[in-house]
Write a structure and sequence with these properties.
mainly alpha, 7 helices, about 45% helix
């Protein structure tokens, strides 16, 4: 009970709550409703604690960096440079075209969605034509106006 109340990490706190409720004699079904966990996971937490002790109640997600990005830093910089020019077919860059470029670089298929993701990640936003243009259109390499704009990144504000 003390560990449950002292714990600051919400995931670990819930794990300790499960053990506290088990020690009070509650049924798995009741514990799963109270802690908002599946009955299977409640059982797994108890088995882990019995097998490994208090260390088993740590949040296992901490310290995991996740999957590495598809493109290396050099490839990402090359993509950024390529996006400033006209697409290979003379039109606008699209998610599919960026994915095709990435496929060539990586030597494996890349989904069109990843191309779109990298367009957005690099700060490009799509601007469709409007009835009235207030500002002159940026012209890309083939003399046509580009509908992709690079959004300027601002420094995040620090809250005091």
């Amino acid at each position: 009970r003390d560990r449950y109340r002292r714990c600051r990490n919400p995931v670990e706190r819930r794990y300790w709550q499960v053990l506290w409720l088990v020690a009070q004699g509650m049924l798995t079904r009741e514990i799963s409703e109270e802690a908002q966990l599946s009955p299977r996971w409640v059982g797994e937490l108890v088995r882990r604690y019995n097998r490994e002790g208090p260390e088993a109640m740590r949040d296992g997600r901490k310290g995991r960096a996740g999957r590495p990005p598809l493109l290396s830093t050099a490839q990402r910089m090359a993509l950024e440079e390529v996006l400033r020019a006209t697409a290979p077919d003379g039109g606008e860059w699209t998610g599919s075209k960026v994915a095709a470029w990435m496929s060539e670089q990586l030597g494996r298929p890349v989904a069109a969605q990843r191309g779109w993701d990298y367009l957005r990640r690099l700060g490009f936003t799509f601007h469709s034509g409007r009835a009235v243009r207030r500002a002159p259109a940026r012209v890309n390499g083939n003399g046509k106006p580009s509908r992709w704009r690079r959004r300027e990144r601002t420094q995040p504000s620090v809250r005091h």
